[in-house]
Amino acid sequence: MVKRVYTVVVGGGPAGLAAAIAFYDAGGTDVVVVERDQHLGGILQQCIHNGFGLQWFKEELTGPEYAQRFIDEVEKRKIPCETGTMVLDMREREDGTKSVYCLSPRYGVLEYQCRHIILAMGCRERVRGNIKIPGTRPAGIYSAGLAQRLVNLEGMMPGHEIVILGSGDIGLIMARRMHWEGAHVKMVCELMPYSSGLPRNITQCLEDNHIPLRLSTTVVEIHGKDRLEGVTIAAVDENKKPIDATREYVPCDTLLLSVGLIPENELSKTLCIAMDPVTGGPVVSEYRETSVSGVFACGNVLHVHDIVDFVSTESTIAGRAAARGGKPLASVPIQAAYPVRYTVPQRCSLSEPFTIYWRSAYPLENGTVVLKINGQTVLKQKFLRVVPAQMQELFITEKHLETLRGYELSDAQISLEVEL
Ligand SMILES: Cc1cc2nc3c(=O)[nH]c(=O)nc-3n(C[C@H](O)[C@H](O)[C@H](O)COP(=O)(O)OP(=O)(O)OC[C@H]3O[C@@H](n4cnc5c(N)ncnc54)[C@H](O)[C@@H]3O)c2cc1C
Fold this sequence. Notes:
- By secondary structure, this protein is α/β, with parallel strands linked by helices.
- The protein contains nine helices and 29 strands.
- The strands form eight sheets. The protein has a five-stranded parallel β-sheet with strand order 6-3-2-10-21, with helices on one face.
- The longest helix has 17 residues, at 308-324.
- The radius of gyration is 22 Å and the shape is globular.
- The structure holds flavin-adenine dinucleotide.
- Flavin-adenine dinucleotide is lined by residues 10-16, 34-37, 42-44, 47, 51-52, 86-87, 120-122, 145, 148, 169-170, 173, 264, 267, 299-301, 305, 307-309, 311.
- Flavin-adenine dinucleotide binds next to helix 1, strand 4, strand 7, helix 4 and helix 5.
């Protein structure tokens, strides 16, 4: 079955839904959302805790409530959504049109021929194989997101005596969830000397529930034959190498791993899109257009977000730009100078005001973030404290753009630096 449509949105999570709505509202009517799951809403369906939507809706919502607001808007606009439909491949033809190949329960193999694609496939969790913990291979080791799905959606408890490795937001939220469900959460271990979760989650999830956080500590061995019986933990030195003298056996029946997320970009690579090795997502312009003209990316497939409101903002930009017809990847690169870990966008055209999102490589205090063009300062912004978990924003206004445009842009270099 072949269908023609102007824009295909791949993924029906908050990013895909916000992009489809923005595309429609900007005058683009011919759009379809393709979602492999049976339901729209993406990862938000299993995030039943509150804390979503403070910026976008100015109220505190749970994940499913947040998703439902977007689903309602999609339905109001009668935007077609193909659920249960998995995108398997994408190709670009010589004339710039694209094909999106899907497996659909209604049509079997389905090809969408389109002008634009909006990538919104989210991300996946790193698992035990990614971090190579030695030991046996018993049952009882879960990624935190899988455990969240089992508890919140399937009504199953993965275990009762819990150790969590990784203090990112999913690990913190799951520590609280397992505690509330009656499990004994013995500790959250974190390899780094600081937590990679949002400060509010450390307070609300760990401190309020008296769950210890062991910083600079990792799991060095797994024990148990059929079911997990315990883990050995150890402190790590400044090179993250476990210190043998600190090895400690912790009996437990469940280990939850919250050790990072990877943008889901296998499909993006089939289109030969330029990728950013730091974010794991495509290189984009301020319009979220990738190096392949007419292909946009937004949400966790572009870079992992801490707050879904940023996802909605970013996806709105992508949807609007797709409706306007897109622009070739802008020419001026934005270089992230360490300890700025990365910026999104990574390139810009300087045609209208935009926001540079950035993250630091480690916690920074009392500094100034500085935007330079060809080594000359254009914009300075002071900060008190910046942590890697929290995405930072730098607004490029029309006034800044005037200064930037005063330079010869053909071989210009913009850099984002930090002065401490
Ligand atoms: C445990 C957890 C707690 C969080 N807590 C908060 C919080 O308190 N506050 C907050 O603001 N944010 C929170 N977030 C962040 C927020 O939920 C995410 O940033 C947001 O959901 C990302 O949206 P997305 O659409 O990019 O990705 P997703 O929600 O993952 O959606 C991607 C969609 O794409 C689909 N897809 C992937 N590949 C294909 C394919 N090949 N074909 C078809 N469909 C495909 C997937 O099935 C999925 O539905 C949390 C996230 C997690 C995981």
